[in-house]
Amino acid sequence: MRFEDLNIVAPILKALKEEKYEEPTSIQQKAIPLVLNRNDVLGSAQTGTGKTAAFAIPILQHLFTDRRENNNSRQIHALILTPTRELAIQIGESFTTYGKYTGNKNTVIFGGVSQGAQINALRKGVEVLVATPGRLLDLMDQGHINLKDIKYFVLDEADRMLDMGFIHDIRKIIAKLPVKRQSLFFSATMPKNIVELSRKILKNPEKVEVSPVSSTAETIQQYLYYTNRSTKNDLLFHILQDQKLDQVLVFAKTKHGADKIVRNLKKKKIHSAAIHGDKAQNQRQKALTQFKDGEIRVLVATDIAARGIDIDKLKYVINYDIPNVAETYVHRIGRSGRAGEEGTAISICEPEENAFIKDIEKLINQKIQLVGENPFPQTDKPMTDSEKKEWEKEKKQRKKEFFAARDKKQNRPHSSKNRGKRR
């Protein structure tokens, strides 16, 4: 099948041809006709499957034909709600690319930056608004945005929205939308709470499912190292000594852990940066741009921050920390090997994570290839439950002693209340 077979109008086909888009992906083949037919759609699809084009192309076509028939003014007719700045920017770029010959105007709004430029763009008039929930509500409350003219609504990355605590914001936004509208709902996973949310948004939706979460791309080679917690960093540096790994996305479990990995890599003269929720939006975007442009070799990310990162031809992903949810592993390594390109996923497993590997292999129904030549093999044994409890107890005591010593040094009363304010 080709895009010409999907009844797409000539201006959009011209833009797609310039981008060398010839054959639609699976989700595009399934979703575009449904959206063009003005059905609500419930889509189960991961980032990297061509999902953005699956909703952007038909929405642009609707707006193009609506404008020709009704000569509509520049009101906001389409709203795309997404969890992160990075993903919002990428979606905005896609609308600009596919709609370059349709006369469409779009803008992107997100938090962490000054409102001025975003408000000016809105005043000039836009048809498509791509937004993160917080900034959208801020500008609505200030009277800069009214959603009364919305005809097309997209909730993208719904599961990540809920993970990030946006459920109340989403409900507030949905309450301001016209009842009569076309709604599209996309989520990589479909747990019970996501299904319940979709029922409140969609009316008699058509279901589209692509790339089940248990599947990993056949083009991704998966490798596994077993090591100890104390030697993880040494092993990571050993792996990165291979200069073929010229652009590497490393996943860390925590924000603190991501920063620590970057500090250690910089000591080894490896250009790297971290992105996570504690980083300012401009810092995250700068790091992502530098990574895409090849100015830094390693980008270290937490799972939430990495959602929405879409890097063409990214070949290498390293799991520095093994996720305790098997589906997360599939999402992570899916950052490489996109659109038929080859990719490599390397996992570094410490004793406490051994059980997670078993869960992952059960989910993907295959054994991850073990690397034999490992200079830092796993020699430690996983802690027993009683040892874990004792370790947690000791960790809390060390933390308490640390803050008590610091408070004494600073002549401050030691209490959890005071400590919380300073932190």
Task: Explain what this protein looks like in three dimensions.
- There is one protein chain.
- With 423 residues, this protein is of the alpha/beta class.
- It has two domains: 3-209, Rossmann fold, CATH 3.40.50; 220-370, P-loop containing nucleotide triphosphate hydrolases (Rossmann fold, 3-Layer(aba) Sandwich).
- It is 44% helix and 15% strand.
- A seven-stranded parallel β-sheet has the order 3-4-2-5-6-1-7, with helices on both faces. The protein has a seven-stranded parallel β-sheet with strand order 10-11-9-12-13-8-14, with helices on both faces.
- Helix 2 (26-36) runs parallel beside helix 3 (51-70).
- The longest helix is centred in the C-terminal third of the chain and has 25 residues, at 385-409.
- Mean pLDDT is 86; it is low at 414-423.
Give a brief rundown of this model:
The chain is an alpha/beta fold and 423 residues long.
**Helix-and-strand structural type:** alpha/beta
Query: Could you give a short account of the major beta sheet?
Result: 7 strands, parallel
Strand content: 5-15%
CATH superfamily of the largest domain: P-loop containing nucleotide triphosphate hydrolases
**Shape estimate:** globular
Strands across the major sheet, in which order? 3-4-2-5-6-1-7
Gyration radius, to the nearest Å?
Answer: 24 Å
Number of helices: 17
List low-pLDDT spans.
414-423
CATH fold annotation of the largest domain: Rossmann fold
Return the CATH class of the largest domain: Alpha Beta
**SS elements, strand count:** 14
Number of domains: 2
Overall helicity: 40-55%
**Which architecture name of the largest domain does CATH use?**
3-Layer(aba) Sandwich
Question: How much is the average pLDDT?
Answer: 86
First CA to last CA: what distance?
57 Å
